[in-house]
Design goal:
With 121 residues, this protein is mostly helical. The chain has one domain: Orthogonal Bundle (Arc Repressor Mutant, subunit A), CATH 1.10.10. The chain is built from six helices and three strands, in the order ααβααββαα. It has a three-stranded antiparallel β-sheet. β2 and β3 form a beta hairpin. α2 crosses α5 and α3 crosses α4. It is globular and about 50 Å long.
Length: 121
């Protein structure tokens, strides 16, 4: 996936952040780190790099005085869209030997795994 995304100047981790922001704009670094399964220091670097590329912007949180929210820019939305066909192609290849039932089961199991890890140290 890194190889496919590199055509648009992204890593898999950066792509994940853009996807999270597309689903729900205005997320904190901490929330992005949790959703992306990376440490806070790693997310700080990812956010800095994406901001340098013009794909995201940081703003003061309206809800919390000491929190900075991160939002997807128009440029970030365009690069995310440009990556979609490559990512979908990889996903189709990865799941090509599975039946629809197996794909649904795998999805449920992965969601369950992620929920089991929430709050884990």
């Amino acid at each position: 996936m890194d190889e496919a995304l590199s055509k648009n100047g992204l890593t898999t981790s950066q792509y994940a952040v853009l996807c999270h922001l597309c689903e729900e704009n205005l997320l904190s670094n901490a929330e992005l780190a949790r959703r992306s399964f990376v440490t806070a220091p790693t997310m700080i670097r990812i956010v800095r790099d994406l901001e340098d590329l013009g794909f995201i912007e940081k703003t003061d949180s309206k809800a919390h005085r000491k929190v900075i929210d991160v939002a997807l820019t128009e440029k970030g939305g365009r690069v995310l869209l440009a990556c979609e066909m490559d990512v979908q192609s990889i996903q189709l290849q990865m799941l090509s030997s599975f039946s629809k039932t197996e794909v649904a089961q795998l999805s449920r199991l992965l969601i369950s795994c992620a929920k089991n890890l929430e709050g884990a140290v």
